[in-house]
């Protein structure tokens, strides 16, 4: 049985949807089938700790992936979710938006509109 090390997980509001291993991205349903059939094993080596086996659990008729490496009862696999870096949003000031709107209406170039409005 091949063992894959999970590096990241992708998740949405319903839970884990895919895992990222050293071989690529695998759909969570495929991972669950592989674990249940014994075809492949999956583990997590999180933060230098020992490897934790990823298990497939069924609750209320729905299967999901579970890993626990810190001894708590929570699903630590969610800690591997990739967080996209936050990018600052630049919001122009109201005056800049007003000048841009006037420039668009009157056909002014940006520098010409700034000179006419005293900016």
Defining traits:
single chain; 7 strands; 25% helix
Q: What is the strand content?
A: 25-35%
Instruction: Give a count of the beta strands, DSSP E runs of length 2 or more.
Output: 7
**What is the N-to-C succession of helices and strands?**
EEEHEEEEHH
Instruction: Determine Rg (CA atoms, Å).
Output: 25 Å
- Give the overall form: elongated
Write structural notes for this entry.
The longest helix is centred in the C-terminal third of the chain and has 13 residues, at 94-106. With 119 residues, the protein is an alpha+beta fold. The protein is built from 3 helices and 7 strands; from the N terminus they run βββαββββαα. A hairpin with a 2-residue loop joins strand 2 and strand 3 (24-27). 12% of the residues are buried. The mean pLDDT is 79. It has a 5-stranded mixed beta sheet with strand order 3-2-1-4-5, with helices on one face. The protein has a two-stranded antiparallel sheet with strand order 6-7. Helix 2 crosses helix 3 (110-116).
